[in-house]
């Protein structure tokens, strides 16, 4: 079946489904394969659950005309997404970066949706499957699409660009994330800059933070750049007003008071303002959108639990984001501070060095009682008694049962696999 025929079937359906546990009625089901599953096995079940058609790549599962046989289901999903994107012919904004992608995407969507009908990546569905699914959620009513792109190996961003064909793009930052796949910070810069390379080659527009020397360096000698930052020479000028406990900034003569903590979130907010400015969103609408945005899902949230106040930033972590969180926490004026840090994953051969660097910083800056959780932190050398190591979450749990924490200001930070939100149940 060719892509035009598949597209006609797609237009008959209400959307895309890839999981029989969440089948939408009258949807187009894609029988994707993984290391431990074969979606073709569930094609019949998908139809029984309400799907209109099933896309399969093994003919033995095609029992009637409702089964659409293709050479490769995943490739067909990706090709269909590109075909649909080109048929819509709307502006697509792509964003990537080591930290802050999802928060920046949500802030940008909040700003643009005050003026346009937008469709943005749900959650962090930002890989070779998530990007096509985002594009296929867009409808004839969509005026601007916002696509988050993630990567942990070289050439992934290039590939995602060939699917989404973005017209605009931005990189939140270059940090020490996924070093296992990228090899080094230089590898990170090169891989993330694949977005710049695509946009430049196709004469598209880049949004650049003029206060980030790496971004400036990577976009030299390119004229289709919209700059933002603290300098008067930028296209959108911003000013940092305060970061305690929330980020407040000045834009176009007005103060914007966000619900985001941490100076590192200034840049995330700045992106959303810059994009809104470029697309001629009214200043008051930008202000209202930023101020109304409330972080969720363990991303820079400030929570209350009993007598304790908590900065919950445990959605993910890498050396750059963890250091930024610690530096911000150090600046906060609080009588009693407690830090919970979980292992940082996907660091490869650098894991030992990077975890020890965090410990060395903590011993020099004394942020208060600090709990280090996980096998990587357990291997570090700790000298100061304020730092305590636990090889597992269960070991931490046993300790806290006999050591209650009260009237404290807490920072909780770690990689997703550590699931440190469980600490809330222990307080």
From TrEMBL:
It is found in: Cytoplasm. GO terms for biological process: cell division; cell wall organization; peptidoglycan biosynthetic process; regulation of cell shape. Residues 299-401 form the Mur ligase C-terminal domain. Keywords: ATP-binding, Cell cycle, Cell division, Cell shape, Cell wall biogenesis/degradation, Cytoplasm, Ligase, Nucleotide-binding, Peptidoglycan synthesis. Residues 14-79 form the Mur ligase N-terminal catalytic domain. HAMAP family: MurF (MF_02019). It comes from the Bacteria. This is UDP-N-acetylmuramoyl-tripeptide--D-alanyl-D-alanine ligase. Its main location: cytoplasm. Its EC number is 6.3.2.10. It comes from Gelidibacter maritimus. GO terms for molecular function: ATP binding; UDP-N-acetylmuramoyl-tripeptide-D-alanyl-D-alanine ligase activity. InterPro entries: Mur-like_cat_sf, Mur_ligase_C, Mur_ligase_C_dom_sf, Mur_ligase_cen, Mur_ligase_N, MurCDEF_CellWall_CoF430Synth, MurE/MurF_N, UDP-N-AcMur_synth. PANTHER family: UDP-N-ACETYLMURAMOYL-TRIPEPTIDE--D-ALANYL-D-ALANINE LIGASE (PTHR43024). Involved in cell wall formation. Catalyzes the final step in the synthesis of UDP-N-acetylmuramoyl-pentapeptide, the precursor of murein. It is an enzyme of class 6 (ligase). It catalyses: D-alanyl-D-alanine + UDP-N-acetyl-alpha-D-muramoyl-L-alanyl-gamma-D-glutamyl-meso-2,6-diaminopimelate + ATP = UDP-N-acetyl-alpha-D-muramoyl-L-alanyl-gamma-D-glutamyl-meso-2,6-diaminopimeloyl-D-alanyl-D-alanine + ADP + phosphate + H(+). Belongs to the MurCDEF family. MurF subfamily. Residues 96-275 form the Mur ligase central domain. Pfam families: Mur_ligase, Mur_ligase_C, Mur_ligase_M. One of its GO terms (cellular component) is cytoplasm. ATP binds at residues 97-103. Pathway: Cell wall biogenesis; peptidoglycan biosynthesis. NCBIfam families: murF. The keyword Lipid biosynthesis does not apply.
